[in-house]
Amino acid sequence: MSNLRLSVLDQSPVPAGGSPAEALRSSLRLATILDNRGFVRYWFAEHHHSASFAGTTPEVLIAAALERTTQLRIGSGGVLLPRYNPVKVAEVFGVLSALHGHRLDLGLGRSGDNGDFPRQLIELHHHIDAQVEQGGLRPMIWLLGTGTGSSTLASRFGTGFAYGHFLNPSNPANARQALLHYQSQFQPSPQQPRPTTIITVRAVVAESESRAAELANSFVLWRTRRDLGMDVPFPTPEQARQHSWTLAENRTREGHAQALISGSAEQVRAELLALIDGLGVEEIMVNTPLADVEDRVESHLALADAFGLGQSAGSTPDLRASAVEPQLS
C-alpha cells in the first residue's frame, strides 16, 4: 500500500450555534492547513436547502481554495450536473483551469437525475474538448456514484470513478461490484489512459479511542435526527453527551455508528486498509463531518501522520492571508 493516496471531501458542516458563513470560512481554513501535508486533493460537496451543510456552490469554494493553496488538487465532489446547463459547467471550469493550471478536478454527481445524464455528459465533454482545441486546459473529470450505473458511465467516458462508500456503507459487496466493473470495462480517453479510482469514507480520528467515540456520537445524533426529518446543524460532542435520546431516535441510531470509522489514528488506518483490501483502489478520500473545525483539523493531520504523509516542499501557509496570487500555468 506504499502508493496509496489520501484526499479530503468537505461538506462544509454548519455547527450548532454557528452560521453558514462560519462553515464556509472553516472549509477554506482547513484546505489551507492541509495544503502541504501530503494529501492529494480537496473536494467540496454540493448540497441545497440544508441547515446542515453550507456548500451550495462548489465552484465558488474551488476558486477561493485554489487561490489559497499551491499543492492540493482542488475540485468538486461533486457538481450535480442534472441541475445545470452543461455549457455553463464547461465554461466555469474552463475559466478555473485557465487561472490555475493542472490542479483542477471536475467531479460530477447525478443526484436528481431525470434520465438525461448520459446526454449531458456527452454535451459537457464536447464543450470541454472545444475549449481544449482553442488552447484551454482540461480539468480532470470524475464521476461520483454508489453503483454500477455510474461506474458504467465512468468507464464508457474514460473518466475517473469515485465510489461513495459513506453513502452506502452497509453493502461492501456493492463497492466491490461497482469498482471492479469500472476497472474491467474502462475505455481510455484523452484525459485518462487507465482507470483511476477513489473510495470515499467517513472517518474520525482523535488522540484516544474514547475521544473519537465521543466525536462520532455527535455525528450519530445528527444523522439520526436527519433520518427523522430534522435537518439541523451539527451538534457538539458536549451537546450529544447531554442529549436524552427518544425511543424513536434509539431505534434509528442503530447502524449509524457503523457508518463511520472512528478511533485512534492507527485503528482508523487499519480499518481503512482492511476496507479497501482487494478493491484495487488507489486513493481514499476521507469525509469527517464534525461541528468543530479544530476537531477536523486534528483528525486529518493525525491520519496523515499514521499513513506517513510528509509535508510538501514550501513553508506553512499564512492563515491570516486572504489569498495568494493565482498560478498561471
What's the helix and strand layout?
Layout: E1 5-10, H1 20-34, E2 41-44, H2 58-68, E3 73-76, E4 79-80, H3 86-100, E5 104-109, H4 117-133, E6 140-145, H5 148-157, E7 160-163, H6 172-185, E8 197-205, H7 209-227, H8 237-242, H9 247-253, E9 261-263, H10 265-276, E10 283-287, H11 293-306
Parallel strand pairs: 1-2, 1-10, 2-3, 3-5, 4-5, 5-6, 6-7, 7-8, 8-9, 8-10
Helix pairs in contact: 1-2, 1-11, 2-3, 3-4, 5-6, 7-9, 10-11
Model description:
The chain has about 325 residues and is α/β, with parallel strands linked by helices. Helix content is about 45%, strand content about 15%. An 8-stranded parallel beta barrel has the order 1-2-3-5-6-7-8-10, surrounded by 7 helices. Helix 5 packs parallel to helix 6 (about 170-185). The chain is globular, with a radius of gyration of 19 Å. The two termini are about 30 Å apart.
Key features of this structure:
single chain, 329 residues, alpha/beta, eight-stranded parallel beta barrel, 10 strands, 43% helix, disordered C terminus
The helix/strand order is EHEHEEHEHEHEHEHHHEHEH
Please tally the helical runs, counting DSSP H or I stretches of 4 or more residues.
11
Rg on CA atoms, Å = 19 Å
Shape: globular
Biggest sheet strand order reads: 1-2-3-5-6-7-8-10
Which bin fits the share of residues in helices?
Answer: 40-55%
Strand content: 5-15%
Structural category: alpha/beta
Which residue ranges are poorly predicted, with pLDDT under 50 across at least 5 consecutive positions? 313-329
Oligomer: single chain
Question: Main sheet?
Answer: 8 strands, parallel, barrel
* Straight-line N-to-C gap: 32 Å
Average of per-residue pLDDT values: 91
What is the total tally of β strands?
10
